[in-house]
Structures are given as C-alpha cells and as structure tokens.
Amino acid sequence: MTAVGLVGCGFVADLYMRSFALYPDIAVAAAHDSDGDRLSAFAAHWSVPGHGDFDAFLAALPPDAIILNLTNPDAHFTVNKACLEAGRHVWCEKPLAMTLDEAQALKTLADDAGLMLASAPASVLGEAAQVLLREIRNGTAGQVRLIYAELDDGFIPQAPYRDWVSESGAPWPAEDEFHVGCTLEHAGYYLTWLIAAFGPVRRVVAASAELLPDKPGGNGTPDFSVATLFFHGGEVARLTCSITAPHDHRIRVIGDKGVLTVKEAWNNAAPVQFHKRLRLRRRLLEMPIGRRCRVTGPTHPQVSRKGAAAMNFALGPAEMLNALAEGRTCRMSNDFALHLTEVTLAIQNAGDGTGPLDMVTTCEKPEPMSWAR
Known about the structure:
Blueprint: E1 2-7, H1 11-20, E2 26-32, H2 36-46, E3 50-51, H3 54-60, E4 66-69, H4 76-85, E5 90-92, H5 100-113, E6 117-119, H6 127-137, E7 144-152, H7 174-180, H8 182-186, H9 188-198, E8 201-209, E9 224-231, E10 236-242, E11 251-255, E12 258-262, E13 272-280, E14 283-286, E15 291-293, H10 315-326, H11 334-348, E16 357-358
Parallel strand pairs: 1-2, 1-4, 2-3, 4-5, 5-6, 7-10
Antiparallel strand pairs: 7-11, 8-9, 8-16, 9-10, 11-12, 12-13, 13-14, 13-15
C-alpha cells in the first residue's frame, strides 16, 4: 500500500478523490486545509483524516507518502517550498508557481534534495494522449508539419458557474479561476502532449489579452491567448486558449499523409482518428470519416464523466509512486514541470507587444506508457 497526502480541499480535490477510488493500492493518509469548515466537510465526505495544523498533517503521513498541492495557485510556491523543505516529493496542480523565478527556485530545491517535483495536468499519461503520441512516433500521418490545438471553453462568464459544486460541497472557485486566467489553468492540457511528442519548445511567439474586463476577479488577467510554438525538430504548433470563443477542445496533427485528430482534450478515452489525404478528380481532401487508432489490451482505470471532464486525475500521482517503487525516473520529471511552466507563463504574459521569446529551460521527452509502445 502506498500513500498520498492532500493540501487543499477545494473543488479539484474531489476530482482527485474520485480518481483515487479506482486505485485500491493507494491510500489518502491525511488532508490539510487552512479553512476549518472546508476541511471538516471534505474529511467527513471522503472519510479521510483531516488536520488543520500543517505540521500535524506532515507528521501523520507515512515516510514514503507524496504530497499533492491542490491549493489556490497564488499559494503554490509557498506550499511547494514547505513540502520540499520537509523532504517530501510533490505533485502540484497547475501552475507550478506564478513566476519563472519561483518555479526555478523550487526545481533547484527539489534537485538538490533528490526529490520529485511534478506539475499537473496528467492527461498526457492518459489513453487518448498516449495513442496520439504512438501514432505520431509511428509516422501514421507522415512527417508532421503543423499542429492546431484549441482550448476554447465557451463564454464562461455567462455560464451558471455559481451552481457548480463539487461532491463534498466546494463551490467552483470562480474569482480565483478568472484571476489566474484560462492560459495558466488550461494551456498545459495540450502543451504536455506537444512537449511529449516533439520535445521542448525552442521559441514562443504569442499574444494575450483581457477581452472580458467585467468578469469577477479578472484584474487585467488575459482571458484569451494564442501562441505559435517552434520546436527544435522543425514542427510548429498553434495553441489557442479562451473563455470567450465557442467550446472547442480539438487537436489536429497535420502531416504529409493526412491528419490525426482528437476532439476532446478532457476525455482520457476520446477517440484518436486518422483522416487520410487523397486526390479525388481535381480536388484534394482529407477523408471526412477517420480511421480509429486503438490500443489492444488494458490501459489505465477510466473515470466516468463528471461535469466537463472524464479525466483520471490520479494518473500523475500514481506515476510518481510507481517511479519511486521501481527506482526509476518519473515520466513527469522536474525538468518537464519547469519547462511546462516557462512556456505557459510566456504565453500568459505575452500581451500585445512581447514578440518572440526563446525558452531558457529544456527537458527530455517522457517515456511512453508501457501499454502504448
């Protein structure tokens, strides 16, 4: 039996708990939150020990337990630092920190202590992403030239978000979400896939803007961004994030032979399809009905849809625990977390005049999951 501890018992913590229910060999040993009422409600709903004191929380964890930092993003640096200084491996909800200097300091602290520091999201370890990555490696679409990735969520300020409540009664943190912004919250869902497919980003050319200044908690935070990402291998990707444009979570990988598509970033079981390119009389087109690309055999535990997502949030922590048990490098490495953070912050902070930015961090491509080789 392996164990995790949770810091932060808000909306996203319930999504992790739903996922951990699929892993009988992982126990949630303790939870901590500075809000006593929220901690009590969460601990009672999920039958986990709750500790209002952080030191008592640390003391309640088994020596080999990892800590999940599920606090508000503005607290990520402080909580990550405290956990690392306590000698604990850390899985952090996105973003790793709110500035690159803070993220670099955390990574240095983790490296010096021989600790793992990983950042959400973990959907890159899920079935849809891993199948797509396998097809890219196998050359199904031929040489990849261009990738279009969309993370548009619809006109969220007009959505009934005040009615969105988690299983243990936590409201969707609207003001915090709007304050942090859709780029920091969502860009990682496809950035992780792109970095895993093509390696680190060499250069970012991006723009971002606040289009909805009247939303709660906005304070100038961009609610739209678009980035062109240049990879060392020559591939180019365009990534768009917004809470204004109609909902669209597609990724299209365009190669010499056709197009690989996934229509739902937040569904681990979303179909991966290949649309072959062909000439028909005097026309050039991709087949409108794609060929489904599949994995034979079991992949990972699947979570039923809850709200907008059908994602197994435990994939990242489970990978960390497996890496510890097997004495190997974690696929979600410290370098990967830092590079993901740098690229995301470059897009978020681009504004309308930043221009090209060369990335200063790098990372290795994570190994594919054993069932997706």
